[in-house]
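Researcher: Can you fold this with zinc ion in place?
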Amino acid sequence: MSAPAFEAWSSPPGEDELRLIPIGGLGEFGMNSLVVHRRNQLFVVDCGQLFPGEEQPGIDRIIPDFAYLEPFGAQVEAVLLTHGHEDHIGALPYFLRQWPCRVYGTAFTLALVAGKLREQGLKPESFLVEVGDYDRVPLGEGFEAEWIPVTHSIPQACSIALHTPWGTVLHSGDFKLDPHPVDGRKTGLRRLRDLGRKGIRVLLSDSTNPGSPGHSSPEQRCVEPLRGAFSATRGKLFLATFSSHIHRIQILLDLAYEEGRKVCLLGRSMERNVRLALDLGLLHLPDDLFIEGGEVSLFPPGKVLVLCTGSQGEPQSALARLIRGEVKGVKLLPGDRILLSSRSIPGNEVAISRMLDAAARLGAETSLAGLGDVHVSGHGCREDLRDYLKAAKPQYFVPVHGTYRHLQAHARIAEEEGWGGDRILMLDEGQCLQLFADDRVAIPGAVPVGKCFVDEGVEHMVDARVVRDRLILQEDGIIFATFLVDRENGGLAGDPTILSRGFVVPSDDGAYAELLATAARRAFEEAPREIQADREALRETLRLALRRVLRKTTQTRPLVVPVILEV
Ligand SMILES: [Zn+2]
Ligand SMILES: [Zn+2]
């Protein structure tokens, strides 16, 4: 799916042209961001991060590369947020440092963003502008953004409709169609149909679950299975879920109240998000439900619910610390139960399994047997996606938020509903979709996009080469080859010394170092005079020569570092 380059990317759009460019979020889950570019004005819908995997050792988060914005920097007008999940807001602090601008979103979304900005030393009040459901915000000549409520696994999620001189561009955001949402805030289907009747030019829509048949389960569907877990637990119930999933938390608090359990909150983000939701009136609960960690032992175990972070097995989470016995006043004992009311994000399975194993060793119940679904997805299944598409009836349909196969499966649903191939636009990250005033559309190619690596504690972005080197170190180790060069005549002043770490020597240590030293000496002596005189070129020549020998003799590719010292 690699697209040709869009040659004219650094010149601004023509008067009659609107560009839509997904900077991230296509072909993978995470880093969702869409650039909307008209002459003299740029908007960014969502600004998310990607969680690093094992291929990015030592990296804390991955954010999109917004190189496309550089030629137009001062024209970045605003960021428009659909909701507050990390894959939609996680890159914002880094983005705003480079392109300070207004950020629009609903109250809960902005409350989460504000916390992130403060952590990074930015002042939220200089950026954030709150919007309500169905608000329309003017953004310059003929441009308006409208926030339309949708149901999702976080409060106050929205689709965003951009009303433009090129027609309406609708971004679904993340959604499912839950007819009985916990907070009573329903998807604005009537408004979507309304807009559909008036004409939507382009719909970009969430492709997380097109492979799952039927409608997505309503959030309330997990009430009974969770109730079952409450009554099947003699001891304390330790329940981990995503701390931004306020609807799930409401269900759990209601159940705790009904079942006569006091609630102890554990984990920084859990305490903070519950506080935020209470302040915004998004959580409703009776007084004196909460107890502190230190009070847990004062109540019979069967009368306590501990609501905590750690559903992904994160080693520093409240649940993991608790199992390691590091939480003062709260102990895991036989008869207690650990329950994860969440899905495991791919890549976290091993950490989760290890954590549950440690809990089972302490005598805690960890099995889900007989409980039913204690978690439901926040994303729409096939019929939800179909209903949304039929409500919006866009002229053009662009599947987003998913791997290529997810996008493809979503496109098939559109085909089934009668959208012809020319009305379904399969974009990839960076591919530019041009809308023209006269109804034409074009995809001229891709603009530069990529990933930036953030290692907290390092002031600047980590270069991709550093990440690659870390991977090589982890796989094959490192070899230093030190050359002593005579300053007078430029020749070698002794045999090169070879030192390795993390590298597995194929035979006898000494003999193999000898072999490498000989190859290094030969490479040095055979290098032409002008290369010998140019340190940079010499290092590269020596590196390549050693790598050749290593590959031939060991099939490995350790990091090779030639060190040249003058004597
Ligand atoms: Zn998302
Ligand atoms: Zn989401």
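Model: Folded with zinc ion in place. Residues 32, 85, 87-88, 174, 401 surround zinc ion (ligand 1) (CB under 6 Å).
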